Amino acid sequence: MAEFQSKVSTWTSSPAQGAGTSVSTLRMDLGFVRSRLRVFMLLQLLHMKLYKVPWPLVLMIFNIIAAMLYVTAFIACSAAVDLTYLKGTQPYNQRAVASFFACLVMVAYGVSAFFSYQDWRGVGSSAYNGYY
Protein backbone atom coordinates (compact mmCIF):
# COMPACT_ATOMS: atom_id res chain seq x y z
CA MET A 1 0.00 0.00 0.00
CA ALA A 2 2.87 2.36 0.75
CA GLU A 3 4.22 1.79 -2.74
CA PHE A 4 0.91 2.83 -4.27
CA GLN A 5 0.75 6.07 -2.27
CA SER A 6 4.24 7.03 -3.28
CA LYS A 7 3.44 6.58 -7.00
CA VAL A 8 0.16 8.54 -7.03
CA SER A 9 0.15 12.33 -7.05
CA THR A 10 -2.91 14.09 -5.65
CA TRP A 11 -1.86 17.58 -6.72
CA THR A 12 -4.02 19.25 -9.34
CA SER A 13 -2.50 21.00 -12.31
CA SER A 14 -3.41 24.37 -13.79
CA PRO A 15 -5.22 24.45 -17.16
CA ALA A 16 -2.06 25.74 -18.84
CA GLN A 17 -0.02 22.75 -17.67
CA GLY A 18 -2.60 20.05 -18.36
CA ALA A 19 -4.09 21.14 -21.67
CA GLY A 20 -0.91 21.94 -23.51
CA THR A 21 -2.28 25.35 -24.57
CA SER A 22 -2.62 28.45 -22.51
CA VAL A 23 -5.84 30.39 -22.09
CA SER A 24 -4.30 33.47 -23.69
CA THR A 25 -3.93 31.70 -27.06
CA LEU A 26 -7.67 31.05 -27.31
CA ARG A 27 -9.18 33.68 -29.57
CA MET A 28 -12.58 34.45 -30.98
CA ASP A 29 -13.06 33.53 -34.63
CA LEU A 30 -13.49 36.99 -36.14
CA GLY A 31 -14.30 35.50 -39.52
CA PHE A 32 -17.41 33.88 -38.06
CA VAL A 33 -18.37 37.06 -36.21
CA ARG A 34 -18.40 38.95 -39.52
CA SER A 35 -20.04 36.17 -41.52
CA ARG A 36 -23.56 36.06 -42.91
CA LEU A 37 -24.20 32.79 -41.12
CA ARG A 38 -23.83 34.53 -37.77
CA VAL A 39 -26.29 37.23 -38.85
CA PHE A 40 -28.84 34.59 -39.83
CA MET A 41 -28.30 32.75 -36.53
CA LEU A 42 -28.87 35.98 -34.60
CA LEU A 43 -31.99 36.76 -36.63
CA GLN A 44 -33.36 33.30 -35.88
CA LEU A 45 -32.69 33.76 -32.16
CA LEU A 46 -34.29 37.19 -32.28
CA HIS A 47 -37.33 35.79 -34.06
CA MET A 48 -37.67 33.08 -31.44
CA LYS A 49 -37.45 35.67 -28.66
CA LEU A 50 -39.95 38.06 -30.30
CA TYR A 51 -42.65 35.60 -31.27
CA LYS A 52 -45.34 37.64 -29.49
CA VAL A 53 -44.80 40.72 -31.67
CA PRO A 54 -47.74 41.20 -34.08
CA TRP A 55 -45.61 41.30 -37.23
CA PRO A 56 -48.50 41.94 -39.66
CA LEU A 57 -49.43 45.05 -37.63
CA VAL A 58 -45.80 46.22 -37.52
CA LEU A 59 -45.51 45.73 -41.28
CA MET A 60 -48.75 47.62 -41.89
CA ILE A 61 -47.58 50.57 -39.79
CA PHE A 62 -44.23 50.59 -41.59
CA ASN A 63 -45.93 50.59 -45.01
CA ILE A 64 -48.34 53.39 -44.02
CA ILE A 65 -45.49 55.57 -42.74
CA ALA A 66 -43.42 54.89 -45.86
CA ALA A 67 -46.39 55.73 -48.10
CA MET A 68 -46.95 59.02 -46.25
CA LEU A 69 -43.27 59.93 -46.58
CA TYR A 70 -43.39 59.20 -50.30
CA VAL A 71 -46.50 61.39 -50.62
CA THR A 72 -44.44 64.28 -49.27
CA ALA A 73 -41.56 63.37 -51.60
CA PHE A 74 -43.95 63.29 -54.56
CA ILE A 75 -45.42 66.69 -53.67
CA ALA A 76 -41.98 68.22 -53.13
CA CYS A 77 -40.62 66.84 -56.41
CA SER A 78 -43.72 67.88 -58.32
CA ALA A 79 -43.55 71.40 -56.89
CA ALA A 80 -39.88 71.61 -57.89
CA VAL A 81 -40.68 71.02 -61.56
CA ASP A 82 -40.40 74.53 -62.89
CA LEU A 83 -42.69 75.18 -65.79
CA THR A 84 -40.40 77.94 -67.05
CA TYR A 85 -37.87 75.28 -68.08
CA LEU A 86 -38.28 74.06 -71.58
CA LYS A 87 -39.62 70.55 -71.85
CA GLY A 88 -36.81 68.22 -72.78
CA THR A 89 -34.10 70.07 -70.88
CA GLN A 90 -32.12 68.20 -68.26
CA PRO A 91 -33.45 69.91 -65.06
CA TYR A 92 -37.04 69.49 -66.22
CA ASN A 93 -36.54 65.83 -67.11
CA GLN A 94 -34.77 64.98 -63.84
CA ARG A 95 -37.47 66.50 -61.67
CA ALA A 96 -40.30 65.03 -63.71
CA VAL A 97 -38.78 61.54 -63.55
CA ALA A 98 -38.17 61.90 -59.80
CA SER A 99 -41.83 62.88 -59.35
CA PHE A 100 -43.01 59.94 -61.41
CA PHE A 101 -40.96 57.38 -59.49
CA ALA A 102 -41.91 58.90 -56.12
CA CYS A 103 -45.56 58.50 -57.15
CA LEU A 104 -44.92 54.93 -58.29
CA VAL A 105 -43.23 53.96 -55.02
CA MET A 106 -45.97 55.74 -53.04
CA VAL A 107 -48.62 53.64 -54.79
CA ALA A 108 -46.61 50.46 -54.20
CA TYR A 109 -46.32 51.17 -50.48
CA GLY A 110 -50.02 52.02 -50.33
CA VAL A 111 -50.95 48.71 -51.95
CA SER A 112 -48.58 46.88 -49.61
CA ALA A 113 -50.19 48.65 -46.65
CA PHE A 114 -53.61 47.52 -47.86
CA PHE A 115 -52.49 43.90 -48.13
CA SER A 116 -50.79 44.15 -44.73
CA TYR A 117 -54.07 45.42 -43.29
CA GLN A 118 -55.93 42.47 -44.79
CA ASP A 119 -53.31 40.09 -43.40
CA TRP A 120 -53.56 41.71 -39.97
CA ARG A 121 -57.38 41.49 -39.95
CA GLY A 122 -57.35 37.93 -41.26
CA VAL A 123 -59.21 38.69 -44.48
CA GLY A 124 -58.79 35.90 -46.99
CA SER A 125 -57.89 33.20 -44.51
CA SER A 126 -59.92 30.04 -44.18
CA ALA A 127 -61.14 31.14 -40.73
CA TYR A 128 -62.60 34.41 -42.07
CA ASN A 129 -66.40 34.39 -42.16
CA GLY A 130 -67.09 38.00 -43.18
CA TYR A 131 -68.10 39.26 -39.72
CA TYR A 132 -66.02 41.31 -37.36
UniProtKB/TrEMBL annotation:
Ordered alphabetically, the record's keywords are: Cell membrane, Membrane, Transmembrane, Transmembrane helix
Q: Cellular component terms, GO, for this chain's entry?
A: apical plasma membrane; myelin sheath
- Enumerate the Pfam families for this protein: MARVEL
What are this entry's molecular-function GO terms?
structural constituent of myelin sheath
> Which residue ranges does the record assign to the MARVEL domain?
1-121
Q: What is its main location?
A: membrane
Q: Name one GO biological process term.
A: myelination
Q: Where in the cell is it found?
A: Apical cell membrane; Myelin membrane
InterPro entries tied to this protein: MAL, Marvel, MARVEL-CKLF_proteins
Q: How does it sit in the membrane?
A: Multi-pass membrane protein
Where in this protein does the record put region Disordered?
Answer: 1-21
Q: Which residues cross the membrane?
A: 57-85, 97-117
Question: What's this protein's family per the entry?
Answer: Belongs to the MAL family.
Q: How does it assemble?
A: Forms oligomers.
Name of the molecule in the record: Plasmolipin
List the top taxonomic levels of the source. Eukaryota, Metazoa, Chordata, Craniata, Vertebrata
